[in-house]
Amino acid sequence: MAPLGPFGMAPRIVAGVSGGPHSLALALLLAEWLAERRGTLTAGIVDHGLRPESAAEAATVARWLESRGIACRILSLDMSPGPAMQARARDGRLAALLALAAAQGVGWVALGQHRADQAETLLLRALAGSGATGLAGMAPARNAGGALLIRPLLAASPAWLEAVVASAGLVPVRDPSNADPRFTRARLRAALADAAGEGPATAALAEAAGAFAGRRAVRQAAVAARLARAAMLSEHGFARLDLAALGQDAVAVAALGGLLRAIGGGLHAPAPAAVAGLLARRAGTLGGARLTRQGLLLREDAAMAPPVPATDGVAWDGRFRLSGTPGPGLMLGALGAAAARLERPAGLPAAVARTLPALWLPPADGRDTVLVAVPALSYPAPETSFGIRVRFAPPGGAVG
């Protein structure tokens, strides 16, 4: 855990637990580590709802962990089978865990991927034609917007984790999809034929991922240094760029790509070739963001997400997260044209004000839509803010 910290006094962590051997081992090991530091662990037991028995399995896992003093929350996703099922399950699982962390004010979400998972990830990305950044595999720690995502077990073999669970007297849940040949990862796992994760092929792949990770770290340091010289990222979800200082080399492309993803609300940065083209033009739209010749990078208002119910922990537009309980019936969405009639702080461009998150009361009984509050503008007044906060929190932070 030390390389993933610092964690400070009495740390609080949310751990993703499926009931499988590796996530169970994660929960057991974290609980022991946190007990020594007077910290607390919450196990987020994710029930995807894809198998009839999954709800009962989640309840059983919760009983196991609660009997060992580990607090649990069952997170039901109610997914349906269909295309891209594993990707949808992964995304839904992570979103549920991040929402749990946000609701509890927890800054770390731990996942149980291990050395064999890292080897499989490198193979998957190589087959998909990933570059050096993708071949670095899963990062031990990365900013996931609302929390730091940590993977403490990446160097551990699955055989060792199985032994941890067995020594605790637990019989883990086995998800049959992990061996289903319809899924590419399962076929690669079968091809490696190394269930223990201690064979030479797994070791070589994990070592290769580590080497690529070293290269990624060097690149990220260069990107961070360039951004420090050439960019100012605002809590209001826009950036000011010194385009001359940013440059047009590979580091500049990576830096602008990260900013485009964060400000455009995307899960991934646009393709490097497209980012390089935008840099060459010095203006235009890409990835849901708009770059002006004056170096202002802001959200493309026409591409913003529709309003969502304003509930504690909800994310809107891939960029902002609400904390607090504003009241029933309110929606969180773009301020839009209403920005023209409100005062705004010096230095906040009018075009940016249109893209700010606002609380709205939907139309009903002949009433028009009512603007209730704009937290970023302290409207209507700080004392009437309902005790809520809407903060800029794009998944993965500004660069990644």
UniProtKB/TrEMBL annotation:
GO molecular-function terms, A-Z: tRNA(Ile)-lysidine synthase activity
Predominant localisation class: cytoplasm
Domain tRNA(Ile)-lysidine/2-thiocytidine synthase N-terminal: 13-190
Alphabetically ordered keywords of this record: ATP-binding, Cytoplasm, Ligase, Nucleotide-binding, tRNA processing
Catalytic activity line of the entry: cytidine(34) in tRNA(Ile2) + L-lysine + ATP = lysidine(34) in tRNA(Ile2) + AMP + diphosphate + H(+)
Record-listed E.C. numbers: 6.3.4.19
Pfam family, any one: ATP_bind_3
Cytoplasm recorded as keyword: yes
Source species, domain of life: Bacteria
UniProt subcellular location: Cytoplasm
PANTHER family in the cross-refs: TRNA(ILE)-LYSIDINE SYNTHASE-RELATED (PTHR43033), TRNA(ILE)-LYSIDINE SYNTHETASE (PTHR43033:SF5)
Function: Ligates lysine onto the cytidine present at position 34 of the AUA codon-specific tRNA(Ile) that contains the anticodon CAU, in an ATP-dependent manner. Cytidine is converted to lysidine, thus changing the amino acid specificity of the tRNA from methionine to isoleucine.
Family: Belongs to the tRNA(Ile)-lysidine synthase family.
NCBIfam families hit by this protein: lysidine_TilS_N (TIGR02432)
Protein name: tRNA(Ile)-lysidine synthase
Organism: Falsiroseomonas frigidaquae
